């Protein structure tokens, strides 16, 4: 018998409920909160995977490489060993040649200083004939709030340059107001006619800050760029401007950066030696040997019209290297002047060091991929690019990048030797690592000699903050240094592969 259902008029007046309405408001919110939590967990896992994928890739690279060498035949291992030793010999040889070529620019710089001293620091150009200079301090305020006022006062009080020919520009960004510091900066600008404080709206990077400044019509002939932690030498700007006046073909003058906090930590001491080797020896030597110099991001002086048209590419992690290579592509002339000195801070913690070098390494990889075409293309605005310069660019943009793999593969190969043929004495260990194959032994010996000669030249031009003992430590630990930086290079490549693009400012203290 069928069951009859009675429907009241009240029920007929109500439309049927949707599935969501079957639940109470509490149940609906509960379901939505569960969905939100699931979404948050997925996002968290995705971020974790994105951050740790480079690490996983590098670890996998090391493990797979060890496994390959464990099953390789003696013949293949001998071939690999010879390739790695040959490539290391080339890198060490080119480095020492650059160091010896740098001796002439070093002598010229010292001669110029002696002439200035003999003339009681009277420079060739009269003050009223000097070029108008915009000196920019670029700052990310939360990161550099403790040092920006000190550096600004230093520039106002210590730089020896006609006041009517120079303007100090503090160009900064900050995600939140930082008081009373910002007000103090603005009040300082009100007291000094040659100080301009500029807060860049919407900026998230150094490139944004600079590009905003380049839109301003300041009437300057030259623009100098400094990171916020720098103390330019009082005569640094004068040396740079004199160099530009003496040769109108010079578009960029890159000065020498010196680490002044080398006594804070052992890491800072090693970075100070590294900077002396790079800025006092390698950069001037490369410019003289290969025919091109590079703007390195700070303590660099540009012709204003060139830089305003050039701008900075905010899509690059190291916009300074990109701008430097774009200048090379246009056949712009960059010189390295060791008398244009600036003092800066080195990272004193491993975390700060890691973030800085990760950004530099991945940025160099980006720039190398973008500009490798210079090894075969013609200059952007016509002219010629000779074989020597092309080969130098090839070494800088290609060989330097693959050297990370050559160095780490050699390290891995040595590790497998030690594991599979464990030596019974220190002498046996040395023979195993360095003299397994007679021909490669000579490459090793010559490479060691090249390192000693390079550091000997570095010792000749070391800064007052670097001791001979620091250089000796650096030399002893150089194999570890090479392996560490090669691993960082691999990490940078892995980040580039996955599209990592976070910009991490260097911590200041």
User: On the 0-100 scale, what is the average pLDDT?
Assistant: 87
Q: In angstroms, what is the radius of gyration? A: 29 Å
CATH-defined superfamily of the domain at 131-270 and 293-381: Spore Coat Polysaccharide Biosynthesis Protein SpsA, Chain A
Shape descriptor reads globular
End-to-end Cα distance: 90 Å
CATH fold title of the domain at 131-270 and 293-381:
Spore Coat Polysaccharide Biosynthesis Protein SpsA, Chain A
- Helix content range: 55-70%
Largest sheet descriptor: 8 strands, mixed
How many individual β-strands?
A: 8
CATH class of the domain at 131-270 and 293-381: Alpha Beta
Category by helix and strand content: alpha/beta
What is the strand arrangement across the widest sheet?
Answer: 3-2-1-4-7-6-8-5
How would you characterize the overall build of this protein?
The chain is of the alpha/beta class and 509 residues long. The protein has a domain at 131-270 and 293-381: Spore Coat Polysaccharide Biosynthesis Protein SpsA, Chain A (Alpha-Beta Complex), CATH 3.90.550. It is built from 18 helices and eight strands. It has helices spanning 9-13, 25-71, 74-101, 103-118, 141-144, 148-158, 181-191, 206-214, 236-246, 266-290, 304-310, 319-329, 350-371, 387-420, 426-434, 438-460, 468-476, 478-498; strands at 133-140, 166-173, 195-199, 222-227, 231-232, 250-259, 300-303, 333-344. It has an eight-stranded mixed sheet with strand order 3-2-1-4-7-6-8-5. Helix 2 (25-71) crosses helix 18, helix 3 crosses helix 14 (387-420) and helix 10 crosses helix 17. The radius of gyration is 29 Å and the shape is globular. Its main location: membrane. InterPro entries: Glyco_trans_2-like, Glycosyltr_2/OpgH_subfam, Nucleotide-diphossugar_trans. This is Glycosyltransferase 2-like domain-containing protein. It is a multi-pass membrane protein.
